[in-house]
Amino acid sequence: MNPYDIFSSHVRDNSPVALVTIIEGPGVGALLVVTPQGIAAGTLGNAEIDRVVSRDAVGELEAGRTIVRHYGPHGESTPEDLNDTQTVRVFIESFSPPPLMWIFGAVDFTAALARVAKILGYHVTVCDAREIFATRRRFPMADEVRVTWPTPMFEERGMRLGPRDAVCILTHDPKFDVPAIQGALATKAGYIGVMGSRKTHAKRLERMAEVGITSAADLARVHSPIGLDLGGRTPEETAISIVGEIIATRTGRQASPLSSSDGAIH
Amino acid sequence: MRELLDDIDRWRTAGKRIALARVVDIQGSGPRGAGAAMAVNEDGEVIGSVSGGCVESAVVTEALAILAGEQPSRVVTFGYSDDDAFAVGLTCGGIIHLFIQPLEW
């Protein structure tokens, strides 16, 4: 297989891969396909530069970073080695699997949220214990629909969730949402949000306390009631307010209008 | 680039020559980050975008010149409003660096 086919099959399989290309200096256009295991195809021109750059690319890939780095023609990377030599600029482009969104509760809000999450590139799993609601036909936009309770779901694959991933609990049902919150808090998920009115939220806090969720650190991780205060009502408007909050949580922004501030936008 | 793969595969199967343009760096404000990509085939068909519409037509011109062998694979920069050669700029005032190469690998 040629480098493109190896590269594209990794991207399609959602298996991490970095595409490493010389963009300036000797060997422009030469490339390497790098996976977490090392070089999968290609060469930048010699074994030394391949070894150094592929090692760096594995690091960038693990961090999910896309970046330009500089080397000498044989992979020299310290400032003194780079004196009096040509510079090779290398573009390391990381393709990490899509972030995950787990949505608990097969309700109308779920369909709207799943649609919006797909636009943002999430791999979406809808989970509900009620077989008649958790169907593919109701959620064709989801990547996966699972009929199960939260606890087994988190026990089985909670370790897959990381800082880029989101858990949205839309059930409103104490039988379901408290175990889901407990399960989500035991993961490294970057965002946990729970739907409900102010009243529901207050009652839920009591039930969370009964099962031992009381630490300030845990409570700060749980966004409840879920979403930004956009004043929307429909499932679609609510979905936008939820993903807005997910983005703002990741970037650490306040989600106020740009027109009311004057800092850098990006 | 993920979103371009289906069309690229179709073009490759049809034996079309393809140029790939990828954003490698952005200075200042830019609508799309590093990794945003578009592809142009020898017939001038275009998929993807790199800037939200500000520089795409100029990228197509560069890509076709590279496919025709009139220019080597190289980094092309847009956004220097004081340079006539690259008069096409980003409305947001940023500078965008793209690497354009034939997809022959």
TrEMBL record, chain A:
This is Unannotated protein. PANTHER family: ALDEHYDE OXIDOREDUCTASE MOLYBDENUM COFACTOR ASSEMBLY PROTEIN (PTHR30388), MOLYBDENUM COFACTOR INSERTION CHAPERONE PAOD (PTHR30388:SF4). Pfam families: XdhC_C (PF13478), XdhC_CoxI (PF02625). Residues 101-246 form the XdhC Rossmann domain. InterPro entries: MoCofactor_Util/Proc, XdhC_CoxI, XdhC_Rossmann_dom. Residues 12-72 form the XdhC- CoxI domain. It comes from freshwater metagenome.
UniProtKB/TrEMBL annotation, chain B:
Residues 11-79 form the XdhC- CoxI domain. PANTHER family: ALDEHYDE OXIDOREDUCTASE MOLYBDENUM COFACTOR ASSEMBLY PROTEIN, MOLYBDENUM COFACTOR INSERTION CHAPERONE PAOD. This is Unannotated protein. It comes from freshwater metagenome. The lineage of its organism: unclassified sequences, metagenomes, ecological metagenomes.
